[in-house]
Amino acid sequence: MTTPRKPRGPYRKGVRRREQILDTALEVFAGRGDAPLQEIADRVGLSQAGVLHYFGSREELLLAVLRRRDTLDRAAGEHAGGPGEAVARTVRHNMDQPGLVRLFVSLSAAATDPSHPAHEFFADRYRDLTATIARGLAAGRRAGTVRADEDAEHLARLLVAVSDGLQLQWLLDPSVDMAALVETFDRLCAAPREE
């Protein structure tokens, strides 16, 4: 069995530079959510055109930021007891990054237009996330920890809707405890205790 070769030469440098731009953009958006491309370019020592060389367009950079956010969110939710707990951990993690929450909410709303560059990303994301949560709920049902009287996919879609709706409410009123409310929903999905 051969091991994959690591990129060498200019290609490797380009990959590293793209990662640097992405990390910087993630940091900038985490705090603000609406950072100008010039700020990102200045931080990495490039022109705006130089940044776009690595991403093609501002929209592609924003999508790359959201993909990276999803990767970090999955890591934040790892080792959770179930899908509801994983979502609550993710929400707690996101509460430290209001700019990324703002970016997510605004882009997801705009992406409802089928011609929007992020439409496919969000359609795929919701389909995959719902399926992952539904599988986790179905496993919980088999283990006797998730209620069996409701459809797992319906509960999964509701959990995603609760999370997304709470993000909007939290942006309007930061006193909203998104994680506690997701945990409440998770308890509503639990199998009734036998007495």
Plain-language structure description:
This protein has 195 residues and is mostly helical. The chain has a domain at 63-189: Tetracycline Repressor, domain 2 (Orthogonal Bundle). Helices cover 73% and strands 0% of the residues. It contains nine helices and no strands. It has helices spanning 9-31, 37-44, 48-55, 58-77, 83-94, 98-110, 119-143, 152-172, 178-189. The longest helix is centred in the last third of the chain and has 25 residues, at 119-143. The radius of gyration is 19 Å and the shape is elongated. The mean pLDDT is 86.
Please give the structural blueprint.
Elements: H1 9-31, H2 37-44, H3 48-55, H4 58-77, H5 83-94, H6 98-110, H7 119-143, H8 152-172, H9 178-189
Distance between the termini: 56 Å
H/E topology pattern: HHHHHHHHH
Q: How many E strands?
A: 0
**Relevant CATH superfamily of the domain at 63-189:** Tetracycline Repressor, domain 2
What is the CATH topology descriptor of the domain at 63-189?
Tetracycline Repressor, domain 2
CATH architecture designation of the domain at 63-189 = Orthogonal Bundle
In percent, how helical is the residue content? Answer: over 70%
Q: Strand-residue fraction?
A: under 5%
The CATH C-level name of the domain at 63-189 is: Mainly Alpha
Give the oligomeric state: single chain
Write down the Rg. Answer: 19 Å
Q: What does the largest sheet look like? A: none
Average per-residue pLDDT, rounded, comes to 86
Poorly predicted residue ranges = none
Return the structural class.
mainly alpha
Q: What general outline do the C-alpha atoms trace?
A: elongated
Q: How many helical elements?
A: 9
